[in-house]
Design brief:
By secondary structure, this protein is an alpha/beta fold. The protein contains ten helices and eleven strands. The protein has a six-stranded mixed beta sheet with strand order 3-2-1-4-5-11, sandwiched between helices. It has a five-stranded mixed beta sheet with strand order 8-7-6-9-10, with helices on both faces. Helix 2 runs parallel beside helix 3 (about 85-100), helix 4 (about 110-125) crosses helix 10 and helix 6 (about 180-190) crosses helix 8. It is globular. The two termini are about 20 Å apart.
């Protein structure tokens, strides 16, 4: 079976993975998050420079872990969007260079399709159809997926403003917690009371999301509170509001579309409270829940290699030679820069 090299560089993680026939053979990940922490968010120029420094060492590390040589690679998959333009271009240039030097096909991959494919590595092929909830720093979407690489992906609902992960970062900053906000809030929330503060649950249509108002509600509560801020209670109550909305909308989407499998992916899918609440609600609703292992929830090269592996297996033609980065690519197809054909 073909061996696929995957490269991810859309934000502040430089990820490389090697996948063959749905099995992750080796991967490596470098993060520049510490370099961004003092700015309270990702600085594109710093991220791009970090990718330049880390990419080749990560490729070598992944090859070593997998016990294969570069000459064994049969195809290259690389994130072509969405993401930071300067960061994407580093990975894309490397992907083109490796593919050209090896004489193998290159597949441009949509970053969000990569998150969905991460679950394939942990649990096997996605049932058709599945509802996929993507929750990350830049994206929050409910998707109806019939075949990740052979069929267009339908959006059931999206966020109208902030993504869930972005809200975590902003609330963490309000509470004086470090960046990135998701892990920081998750750690301190276990010490707090999730019912201490009744933060709002915004509703956008039947399946849409909005977290800007929730972030503002936390800010107003902190401003009005007299005395020391009960950080743990605020964090736990905010986290509960996010997990409640995400899981309620996802379960509703499964019921509305008569789908028996919910897949939750993306960086926020590593949040313990979200995982626990989703598990209990899915069990009650008789819906199968699939969430990748935490290490495959955040950005990584394995998930991009997984999409490439699926594309190769489906007989998809390589992406066009003039493939370029698309920082604001909307998820419709898993492959970017491809040829709009049905591979079934």
């Amino acid at each position: 079976m073909p061996l696929v090299l995957g490269i991810e560089s859309s934000c502040d993680e430089t990820g490389v993975g090697l996948v063959r026939d749905g099995v992750l053979l080796g991967d490596a990940l470098a993060s520049s998050v510490d370099e961004h922490a003092r700015f309270g968010g990702v600085v594109p120029e710093i991220a791009a420079r970090a990718h330049l420094e880390a990419l080749v060492p990560m490729v070598k590390s992944a090859l070593t872990t997998a016990g294969v040589a570069m000459s064994d690679v049969d195809a290259v998959a690389v994130t072509a969007g969405p993401g930071l333009a300067s960061a994407l271009n580093v990975g894309l240039a490397a992907g083109k260079a490796y593919a050209t030097s090896l004489g193998v096909p290159l597949y441009g991959v949509h970053h969000l399709a990569g998150h969905a494919a991460a679950d394939v590595l942990g649990h096997g092929p996605l049932p058709s159809p599945s509802v996929v909830l993507i929750v990350s720093g830049g994206h929050t979407s409910l998707l109806l997926v019939e075949d990740l690489v052979r069929r267009p992906i339908a959006h059931i609902g999206d966020t109208a403003d902030d993504a869930a992960g972005e809200a975590f970062d902003k609330v963490a900053r309000l509470l004086g917690l470090p960046y990135p906000g998701g892990p920081a809030i998750g750690r301190i929330a276990v010490q707090g009371d999730p019912q201490a503060i009744a933060f709002p649950r915004a509703r956008v249509g039947d399946f849409g999301f909005s977290f800007s108002g929730l972030k503002t509600a936390v800010a107003r509560w902190v401003e009005r509170h007299d005395g020391p801020i009960p950080v743990a209670d605020v964090a736990a109550s905010f986290q509960e509001a996010v997990a409640d909305v995400l899981t309620a909308r996802a379960i509703a989407a499964c019921r509305a579309h008569a789908v028996g499998t919910l897949v939750i992916v993306g960086g926020v899918a590593a949040n313990g409270r979200l995982r626990d609440l989703a598990a209990s609600r899915c069990k009650e609703a008789g819906i199968e829940l699939r969430i990748p292992p935490p290490r495959l929830c955040t950005d990584n090269g394995a998930m991009i290699a997984a999409v490439g592996d699926l594309l190769v297996a489906a007989g998809a033609p390589p992406s066009r030679p003039n493939l370029s980065a698309d920082p604001s690519a909307v998820l419709v197809n898993a492959q970017l820069g491809g040829h709009d054909v049905d591979h079934a």
